[in-house]
Here is the input.
Amino acid sequence: MKEYVLGIDLGTSAVKVSAVDRTGHIAAQESYDYPLSQPQPGYSEQNPDEWVNGTAVAIVRLILNHHIRPAEIAGISYSGQMHGLVLLDAQHKVLRPAMLWNDTRTTAQCQEIEAKLGDRFIEITGNRPLEGFTLPKILWVKENEPDIWAKAATFLLPKDYVRYRMTGKLAIDYSDATGTVMLDIKQGAWSQEILDAFDIPASMCPLLINSVTEVGPISETFAIFSGLHQSTRVFGGAADNAAAALGAGIIAPNMVLCSIGTSGVILKHEASADTAYHGVLQMEDHAVTGQSYSMGVTLAAGYSLSWYKRTFAAHEDFTHLVNEAAQSTIGANGLLFTPYIMGERTPYADANIRGSFIGIDGTHQRPDFTRAVLEGIIFSFRDLLDIYDAQHQTYDTIVSVGGGAKSPLWLQIQADVFNTPVVRLENEQGPGMGAAMLAAVGLGWFASFADCAKAFVHYGQTYQPNVANAQRYAALHQIYHQVYGQTKELSRQLLEYRTNLSSNLMNPNQKTKVKQL
Ligand SMILES: Nc1ncnc2c1ncn2[C@@H]1O[C@H](COP(=O)(O)OP(=O)(O)O)[C@@H](O)[C@H]1O
Ligand SMILES: O=C(CO)[C@@H](O)[C@H](O)COP(=O)(O)O
Here is the structure.
């Protein structure tokens, strides 16, 4: 009988499910898209039921469209968008929409955390308190929605909620728990000091597990819903960037991951969690127990391209739109784009900054705008690599994953801007493959992740940097780098205008603030 593992990649734009056999061959893939809700500036929410329903639909399609028999699915594991708060009551019912990793309404709560714990917070968690992380979201609910807080009994992160609905078991794996910034990374336990400082009951924090821990079989309810067998074994799973690093074979410090999903990530494997980034970069537990990685995050990488497509080319597909950028030149004929359209996290932890096109000329055509968007996103990644370079960290290979890695043109732009060879995977499913690897190792198909990587990680084409292009991009990046400082205050004023506008729309009697501007 054939045997498969399912890697469930719970992204921000969609859930993607891959069925992988023992040789690492992806036998079938299905996905299901869901929307992002942004009811106010800075807010970003999703309905956790959409994740569960989408996962079930994708599994049903795998079974029906690709003739994968439920009895052949030996194990399942997960990769999940990080940090999102799913708040549950005592009966484990969802209390409010999930607040996602790119929800930046929590600046005041981050300031409270800094004021109370200062550098001690970095010592405990390895991170600075930033808007996207889970703890500031918990504090926001506590301060702004007391009725909901009164009912809150526990919380989960996105993929942990999906796993809960599939198995009935509550747990968070370590790689996602570090992203809550409530974990004491040295002790490997929830930090009592942080919980006490913010009066959060320890009983709210779920059981901590490893990424390969077996959680249990599929529950009877989910088996009926999805067509899965109850005998399928379910393993913990990991934060999407940890899973992507695993699926891309990032297991040594000379390798860097570049991920373009909804967010953008530059990630480096770290020999130890004791690094000197001092919260400028995130430090997270890896999916491999005892290992760590650091990363910087562009909040709106793939999201900037999908915003651009939705707004200016709604009826074209991504491939057609992206290919059009080849009609423009290196530097988009002198047009720059900054992708700060949802605020930014690294290197500027700034919820108020917004994006811009700089240098629009009457001769610019749409291919110039498209190219500027692609290049601006990669310039934001160059800012992240510069942090590593400033620390004299060396790397010689960049593995590119995520939806953005589907485009050869964009991969060449990456190689040129990074001035480093960029390699893609044969199949761009980095996080999904990482999730499948967790199930394969959990089932005992392989004795170690290194053995599993030999079978499961297949590199595709390498894109070599073009020296002349790299020099031109290095000069353009010097200009790009100045845009943040020059537009920061303008962005703040415009955001204030928008915020007043939306609160006046909700309360038409208060028009004065808008008039002042
Ligand atoms: N053909 C394509 N070429 C380049 N980029 C693409 C293409 N298709 C999708 N993308 C980009 O990939 C992003 C989605 O990537 P994905 O890894 O699926 O995201 P997530 O895991 O956040 O759901 C889109 O926002 C888009 O910017
Ligand atoms: O916030 C982070 C990492 O800290 C994001 O990378 C999220 O984990 C979302 O990932 P994608 O949906 O973009 O893959």
In short: The first strand starts at residue 4 and ends at 10. The domain at 251-427+466-486 is CATH 3.30.420.40 (Nucleotidyltransferase; domain 5).
